[in-house]
Amino acid sequence: MSRIITRRRFLIGATMTASALGLSGCDALVESDRTKSVLKIAEGFSMKTQRFLLGDNALAREFTEADLSPVFRANGTSMPDNPQYLDWMNQQFSTWKLDVGGLVDKPMQLSLADLKALPARTQITRHDCVEGWSAIGKWTGVPLGALLKTVGLKPEARYIVFHCADEYEKTLDGTGWYYESIDLVDAFHPQTILAHTMNGRDLEVAHGAPLRLRVERQLGYKQAKYLTRIEAVADLGRLYGGSGGFWEDRGYEWYAGI
Amino acid sequence: MATIDAGVATGRTVIYRHSLLVRLSHWVNVLCMTVLLFSGLQIFNAHPALYWGQYGADNDPSFISMEAVEDGDKAKGVTRVGSLSFNTTGVLGLSQVDGEATARGFPEWLTIPSYQDLATGRRWHFFFAWLFVINGFIYLAYGLLSRHFRRDLLPAGNELTPAHIGHEIVNHARLRFPKGPEARHYNTLQKLTYVAVIFLLLPLMILTGLTMSPGFDAVAPWLLDIFGGRQSARTIHFLTAFSLTAFVVVHVAMVILSGVFNNLRSMITGYYAIDHGDIKGDKL
Fold first, then answer.
1. Count of structural domains, chain A
2. Residue A20 confidence (pLDDT)
3. What ipTM was predicted for this assembly?
4. B contact residues 26-45, partner A, Cβ 8 Å cutoff
């Protein structure tokens, strides 16, 4: 998602445009809060309709080895630049641990070796970037549902939040760290996995080493990379920008099934 | 199309041509298709390249692309279609934003919003896609139940002969439009065009649009087989939008050439005046 224009950049651009030329009538309409809230109706409509048609367990198409993209485009952060991540990377992620906590009965910490020892699912699926391009890759990882059953969700848990090791936008208040969230329908979907292996090899740094989320019925920005912590929560409003994800905080839909 | 015989003495008959529902759904459609086109170009600009097959990204061969390339110390906009390459500087691939040449698929005067903002483009696109689909279903139900399709749009057998169609094409090319009784109903070219738009192009837009949705692909994986993959569907979506735009250009030209006031009135009030043609002068 390196080329998605962030709200910050667009605001700078928009302000310059507005001051230089005066906003055209069309753009003024686009930027009104009322317009935005009306347009948001469509997201709820799309999600409810798709969920109704999908049921909980309809599968995304799985492809064959022959369908794999020759080059799987890396997107978003391709090399986190914080010292903690570099330290993990330099030790082949042997010191990295995944923290599973929040509204769970038995919080856990798992090393990469622990995760690799768990039963895994392998799937060849299509990754669809919100920009329009697609790539097909083969992913192997731990079904998230199985892990959540092990730690035990508390009854009030509604969403699973994925915290990441990449600060995608440098901000003073820390709201530029990448994160994502899904609800329990997607969390317990059989194809929702924590992938440690891609195309038969350890996940590369550009693709989110050592662990990334695959939630196959949604767009690319939901597939959070560089996972460090999984947190079960009751609501999303208090995290970061409050909309449930890095791109969601910047205007994109939380439900990215379309 | 109930007839109200008024103004016979002047050689004109005013008929009730378009029902309220047809008029309303027409104008809702105008709004939806306008927003869908310009917000669609905004979405296209996020990745101005089209592919064929299940996947497609920067390293895969594209079928159509727009990009800015270095040309000496300046940049130029290049649009590629297959193996053909065109210099489209100023419009496609490279255009002015705030007085500065900027890499951009379509120029700012063709996108909603004008500046690069994929998130907002998507919000507009999906909202109006819903409105368009709801409007379309209401129109389809009405068209079937009221026999509008059968009565007004289905060509009769004798209208489909090559001689008849050939004759109409010649008349259209000469801008000679039907008068008298023949003007009471759509001519064959109109019927065929409207049938193609309503039952082929618009459903194709919806289905290829849905095929791009990863969620909907899980609901209906057969869409991927019909269109040959998500990236093929994206390409067909674009080409069909282009076809619809061409239709609208011809449609509006015909509206203007065959009596803009009478045509607009009929799509607003429902009433359309027919010139009998046997009395000279009185041209609308």
1. 1
2. 43
3. 0.88
4. 43-44
